[in-house]
Amino acid sequence: MSEAGGTRVQSYIGDPVSEAPVVDRDTLEEIFQDIQGDLRYDHELNGCLNCGICTATCPAAHYYDFSPREIVQLLWTENLEGIYDAMQEKIWACAQCYTCAARCPFGNSPGGLIMIMRETAIKHGMQSAKDVLRPFSRVMLKLISTGNQLSPDMINPEHFPDWGPDICKVDAPLKLLRQAIPMPTLNTTATAWEVNLKTSVELYTIWEMTGVLDQLESIDQNLFDVIIDIMDEKREDLDDWLEEQEDGDGDE
Question: Under CATH, domain 25-124 is a member of which superfamily?
Answer without folding.
Answer: Alpha-helical ferredoxin (1.10.1060.10)
